[in-house]
């Protein structure tokens, strides 16, 4: 895969969609955890929070996929984005220095993720030609 300077990862507990961006375009990788995430339900007077523990192997694979990026934007709808950022800070401090931001984002399309990242990194957006 060609190396681009910027990367954005949209992550939740079931997948990570990683886009490496540059002036010449973008490349995408989609990663999934090895074990399917199951929903846990917390019951009153029970020990534990009712949340699954962070998937360190999954976050490790995402970290490897981001290792060559010069600047990284992490986005997602829930806690996975902050869990990934914490994992990177703990396990790969050299990559952690390149995290530009960690921001909330619902469930955008691939094109919306790329456009969001391009605006964030101030990269030129593709020109839309008017019909005619």
Oligomeric assembly:
single chain
Distance between the termini: 37 Å
Assign an overall shape.
globular
Task: State the CATH topology.
Answer: Nucleotidyltransferase, domain 5
Residue windows where pLDDT falls under 50 for at least 5 positions:
none
Number of domains: 1
| Helix-and-strand structural type | alpha/beta
Task: Give the rounded overall mean pLDDT.
Answer: 85
Please give the order of strands in the largest beta sheet.
3-2-1-4-5
- Name the CATH superfamily assignment: eRF1 domain 2
The total count of strands amounts to: 5
> What is the highest CATH level, the class?
Alpha Beta
Helix content: 25-40%
* Major beta sheet summary: 5 strands, mixed
CA radius of gyration is 16 Å
- Indicate the CATH architecture: 2-Layer Sandwich
Strand content: 15-25%
Listing every helix as H and every strand as E from the N terminus to the C terminus, the arrangement reads EEEHEHHEH
> DSSP helix count?
4
Description:
The protein is α/β, with parallel strands linked by helices. The protein has 4 helices and 5 strands. It has helices at residues 56-66, 80-91, 93-96, 110-121, and strands at 6-11, 16-22, 25-31, 71-76, 99-104. The protein has a 5-stranded mixed sheet, with helices on both faces. Strand 2 (16-22) and strand 3 form a beta hairpin. The protein is globular, with a radius of gyration of 16 Å. The model has no long low-confidence stretch (mean pLDDT 85).
